[in-house]
UniProtKB/TrEMBL annotation:
Keywords: 4Fe-4S, Cytoplasm, Iron, Iron-sulfur, Metal-binding, S-adenosyl-L-methionine, Transferase, tRNA processing. SUPFAM superfamilies: Radical SAM enzymes. This is tRNA-2-methylthio-N(6)-dimethylallyladenosine synthase. It is found in: Cytoplasm. Belongs to the methylthiotransferase family. MiaB subfamily. [4Fe-4S] cluster 1 binds at C11, C48, C82. It catalyses: N(6)-dimethylallyladenosine(37) in tRNA + (sulfur carrier)-SH + AH2 + 2 S-adenosyl-L-methionine = 2-methylsulfanyl-N(6)-dimethylallyladenosine(37) in tRNA + (sulfur carrier)-H + 5'-deoxyadenosine + L-methionine + A + S-adenosyl-L-homocysteine + 2 H(+); N(6)-dimethylallyladenosine(37) in tRNA + (sulfur carrier)-SH + AH2 + S-adenosyl-L-methionine = 2-thio-N(6)-dimethylallyladenosine(37) in tRNA + (sulfur carrier)-H + 5'-deoxyadenosine + L-methionine + A + H(+); 2-thio-N(6)-dimethylallyladenosine(37) in tRNA + S-adenosyl-L-methionine = 2-methylsulfanyl-N(6)-dimethylallyladenosine(37) in tRNA + S-adenosyl-L-homocysteine + H(+). Its EC number is 2.8.4.3. [4Fe-4S] cluster 2 binds at C157, C161, C164. Catalyzes the methylthiolation of N6-(dimethylallyl)adenosine (i(6)A), leading to the formation of 2-methylthio-N6-(dimethylallyl)adenosine (ms(2)i(6)A) at position 37 in tRNAs that read codons beginning with uridine. It comes from Acidithiobacillus sulfuriphilus. The gene is miaB.
Amino acid sequence: MHTLYIKTYGCQMNEYDSTRMVELLAASHGLRVVDDPAAADLLLLNTCSIREKAEDKVYTQLGFWRPLKERNPDLIIGVGGCVASQEGMRLRRRAPFVDLVFGPQTLHRLPDMLDAALASRQPQVDVDFPFLEKFDHLPERPGQNGPSAFVTIMEGCDKFCTFCVVPHTRGREYSRPMPDIIREVRSLVGQGVREITLLGQNVNAYRGATGLIGEAGLAELLERLARIPGLLRLRYTTSHPNDLDDALIAAHGSIPTLAPHLHLPVQSGSDRILKRMHRKHQVASYLEKIDKLRAARPDIRFSSDFIVGFPGETDADFAATMDLIAAVRFDQSYSFKYSPRPGTPALKLKDAVPEAVKEERLAILQGRINALAQEYAQAMLGTRQEVLVTGPSRRDARELTGKTGCNRSVNFAGPAVLSGQMVLVEITETMPNSLRARWSGDLLPADAVEPRGFAHARA
Ligand code: 5AD
Ligand code: SF4
């Protein structure tokens, strides 16, 4: 067994898990990633079940891989992630040629499962929730490519929104101890990483052992990470409004390396729908947090997730969501049509919204969000922005590409040695999905704190 092909669906947590699977199997079995499934000895599918027809997508993909297995009976096929967790043994029944089924919490057992499958030629299914175990069994992270990295700091979710499979597939909340996270971040920064995004399904519910006495929350973890020399930018995603406490809000004001952007999903602007979603927050409490964050960090921008067409959503409820968008002026958000998910309480709710209405609402909402994103981009013209240079631009290798603090892609002409550095550029042009800029020769040293030029106006 020499080669591995991996396909990943879904969220950043899944991307992170896939990276760790590759690292794990490289360490345990010396496997090397190939980009052609036909050239692989092991095929892995890391699945996501958050929205629409996720299971169908998995079975379709497995259907494409089946002939490879028929041609090469030694090929091992594994399915991991949330669909695996949700389907368990059912997956084996529908796709008997699958050898390994593992959940998001058991990926660290992959090398042992692989050995067992190779030795016994019997399928291996392990979709437990063995908290604590996963992170203790992952190897130290080897060479990084690029100045940006993700670090999972907590797993699972205890919120049980009625539409969401996450608490069912990823399990209850579990936070990694702070010293482990700090060690991982230090090691990444030592390898040239300059920006860290802390990941968790409900990341601001983080409460981890401090290493001294007791536990502390995300604000304290951010403060400790911000002290690591060479770490220039911190982000965290994704958050629930109720877990955004005053300490975390204050951290946005006091930690300059914390990016001036927060993804704070609201889902709906109608209290009636929020209640049916079991979100446990109201529009007013959400707006209050937004105001406090803006007071702490005036240049902060917000993005959100929205669900349209949740059962029972009327025209008035949808109008309330549009009002909330106007009030907050979100930038670059994600929006989805509600899709019923297996095992979730919302399945029992009456008054399903017709598909055509969902589509119409989604188009209206996305049109407004895109218009706001363009307004923000226009307002950035002529401002100076901190950009972390990720490497040469994909379109034109003579150009560099990077990300602003508010998470926008920027392209500009500059020497290749700037890759991995934080620079100051002036925004010169807006494109549909990116910005163009001019670099005037300024590098940002690790401890520089620039006044950010973009003032936010509440509509
Ligand atoms: N239908 C539509 N969107 C969903 N999301 C989660 N579950 C569903 C569902 N059943 C969206 C939410 C969440 C994001 C990650 O995916 O907006 O914040
Ligand atoms: Fe799902 Fe997020 Fe709600 Fe948790 S807080 S149940 S992950 S939508």
